[in-house]
Amino acid sequence: MISGITIISLLVVGACAADDDYEEVGADCVNLDNQLPDGSYEVVDEDLCDDDGTVRYHGSHGAYGWYYGGARSGTKVSKGTTVRPSDVQITTRKGTVIQRGGFGGRGSSGS
């Protein structure tokens, strides 16, 4: 006879095992205070952005944050979003994982 706790444990393990099927989204660190006329943003060094998705302010130098899923052309990125997606793995252009996808992933949103 299988107990309720055993069934729940098996469901949790199954959900965790399915984590390998998450979607991957790229992220670029941009100066959010400097949107270009064509709607794109200038990509800056990713050390200026926090991994937790919050916008980082550097006085009069700007507000830096992640831009998710954009199409990059040279040093500009467009056609993405500043809203942090949930249940996906987010990886920077340098290969740093800033959010793990699937069960247990951080699902917060940035601006």
TrEMBL record:
Name of the protein in question: Lipoprotein
Species of provenance: Planomonospora corallina
